[in-house]
Amino acid sequence: MSEKEPPNLELPTCGDQPLWDISLGAFNLPALIVAEEVGLFPFLEKTPATPKEVAHHFSFNPRAAEALLGVLASLGFLAKYRRRFHITEVSRNFLLPESPYNWGTLLRAPPVIPDLCSAIKGILKMPEDKMGERAVEVFGKLKEPGKMDYEQVKIIAEKSHVRSLPAALAVAKWGDFKGVNRLLDMAGGAGSFCIGLALRYPEMEFTVADLAAICEIATQYIADYQLEDRISVQAVDMFEDEWPSGYDAVFFSNIFHDWGRERSIYLGQKSFDILPSGGRIYLHELLLPDTKDSPPALTVYSMVLLFSTTGNLFTAGELDELLTECGFEDITIIHTFGYHSLIMGKKP
C-alpha cells in the first residue's frame, strides 16, 4: 500500500481539443505540400474524384489516399459532394500551377518540412501488406523481455496516462456502468480507466490486462491511488494468450483504431465469447464523422496512424456495424470528453 495520500481527481473544467489541434497540426503543411507536389489540385479541378479514383490515378494506397483527402477537406482545400472531392475556391486561386497567386514555392520554404513530407509520400505509395510494420516492431519489443528498457516503457505509459486520465473521469461520469461488477480493461496500459471508474464506482472490481512490461508500470499507478485491493493486473498478449474470464464487461480505450477492422473483429469476438448474456463491451474511441473530412485534428490523426499502426480512425457507423457483426446489440454511442466518445454494446 502506498504511504502517500492518493491524488484527488476532479474532471477538468474544459476539453483538451486545443492541445490535440496543436500537437497534430504539424502534419497539416506537409500534407498540403505533398498534395501540391503530386498535382492533386489540377487533377481534381478537371475531374472531381472519389478516394478510390484518386488512389488509382496516382497509384496511392487506398486507405492513405482517403486519409489525405480527409485532411485536405478538413482544412478547407477540398469539398466533398456526392462522394467525390472537388477543389475549393481557395485551392483554385492559390494552389493551381497556372495561377499567378500560386503558393507552391512558399509552402516548401520551411526546412523542417521535408522529413514529414517524405513520411506522407511513403504511406501513399506503401503496399497494404507493409502498413503497420512499425507497430508490429514496437509490439514485438514490448513482448520480449530486454528488447525495450524500463525507461522506454515508462515513457510510453506516461504519455498514455496523461492523455487518458481526464477522459477516464469523463467516461466514469457519463458512461452507463450500472450493473457492472467485474470489468476487464484489455490492453489497459497504465490503468487510467480502471482508476477513474474505481473512484466513482466503489463496488466494482477491475483487471488491467496488458503485456508484462506495461503491467509493471500499471501496478505503480494503481498503488498511487491506493486501489490495489480492487484493481488487479494480469499479463496478457491479447492476440496470442487465453483471455481471463469471469467478467461482465470488457473495456478497450483507443485500441481498435490501432489494429484495423480485421483484428478489431477478432477482439470483438473474443470479448463476446468470454462475456455472459447481458455482458457489455465498451469502446472508448476518437470517431470521424461519416464523411471522414473533419475536424482537422482527427483527419490528421487518422493519417498519422498509418505511419505507426495497422489501422486508422473509425466512424460511429463503422464501429456499430463491427460490433453488430460480432454479435452485440443495443449499440449506443455518447460523447464523453474532448474528441472522445464511448460506444457500448450488449451480448444478447
Structure report:
- The chain has helices spanning 17-24, 28-38, 40-46, 51-58, 62-74, 89-94, 104-107, 113-124, 133-143, 150-174, 192-200, 212-224, 256-274, 296-308, 316-326, and strands at 78-81, 84-87, 182-186, 205-210, 231-235, 249-253, 280-288, 314-315, 329-337, 340-346.
- It has two domains: 17-131, Winged helix-like DNA-binding domain superfamily/Winged helix DNA-binding domain (Arc Repressor Mutant, subunit A, Orthogonal Bundle), CATH 1.10.10; 137-346, Rossmann fold (3-Layer(aba) Sandwich), CATH 3.40.50.
- It contains 15 helices and ten strands.
In the CATH scheme, the class of the largest domain would be: Alpha Beta
Strand content: 15-25%
* Amount of helix: 40-55%
- Mean model confidence by pLDDT: 92
Question: Structural class, please?
Answer: alpha/beta
Number of helices: 15
